[in-house]
Write a structure and sequence with these properties.
The protein has 13 helices and 12 strands. With 397 residues, the protein is of the alpha/beta class. It is globular and about 55 Å long.
Amino acid sequence: MVDTKFKRWLYVLLLIIFRVDGFYVDITYVENAVAKGAVCLDGSPPAYHFDKGFGAGINNWLIHIEGGGWCNNVTTCLARKDTRLGSSTKMVKQVAFSGILHNKATFNPDFYNWNRVKVRYCDGSSFTGDVEAVNPATNLHFRGARVWRAVIDDLLEKGMKSAQNALLSGCSAGGLTSILHCDDFSALLPTGTKVKCLSDAGYFVNAKDLTGTEHIQDIYNDVVTTHGSAKNLPVSCTSRLNPSSCFFPQYVAPNIRTPLFILNAAYDSWQIKNILAPGVADPHGVWHNCKLDVTECSTTQLDTMQGYRLGFLNAIKELESSSSVGLFINSCYAHCQSETQETWLRADSPVLDNITIAKAVGDWYNDRSLFKKIDCPYPCDKSCHNRVFDPNEHPGV
């Protein structure tokens, strides 16, 4: 009990420390998007936070997409509709910019003076949905693809049409967005703009759960069906496979023409909790403590997680030979490592071959070197910041 209380106290203290490393940016609503039907689940306008570039970065743009999972049917979408993940009216007016969004060279040497934008996520489909009809009984709007285009159009008008350099990045479901929309993003920018894409914790793999059920595949199939996503997924994939398969990066990424960087933990904490060991596959809660804290996992559970890692590595294998794809695959129990200063760039940040995530991504983007490293298996990496989750915040785990 003492250990658990200490961990919670330490986690709160660290959160306070990390916030000091960031600064707050006001929200911008894309009001004119409503007339185009480009709206959040509840019909409210899209939103983003924008900190202008300066100096040598004035014509460079970093677009970072917020994460937040998906809703795969009317019930789960209704549950999101009145939250920040379904309505811009429920979003906080300011968010902290740190890590890859920081405006100080000390914290973010390669992108600090760029125009930096955090796009809020309120459609539940990784910006792929587009259903014209709106059921008056639910008032749900499945318009993620329209939201995506409306936000990009707004930013083009605010100066991105003159971009010399651009990076589309995102975390979690936003990291998936940065893969699915990578080539589309490049096509919307002027010819001659240097465009690349970064996916942070967005490489969700098509794996079976503990019982052998294709749980995540079923969810993705429902997402694509509910949101009408098929027509907005990369044709290079949908021309070969069924649309729900094209929600998985492993079937999409190898055919993306725009340079791509995959930043992911091989033991991604979201994937372990929701793909490998979701509640439906663990009715007696045997995995409960393990999912909250990797140090609480039994030998058998760790063996199962090592198997998951091997499956993950197999899912990125096709990218290893690419001359334009960067890889930073560490063996941490974490999810999203670019948004917080703690993991992006700090004295004690995670490293591979003594290289931080910030340097690896910066070297890749600026063509200084093609970083492509895969970590040794857990628990060999002592630089990891393994997440410890509060059970009160994850009652379903």
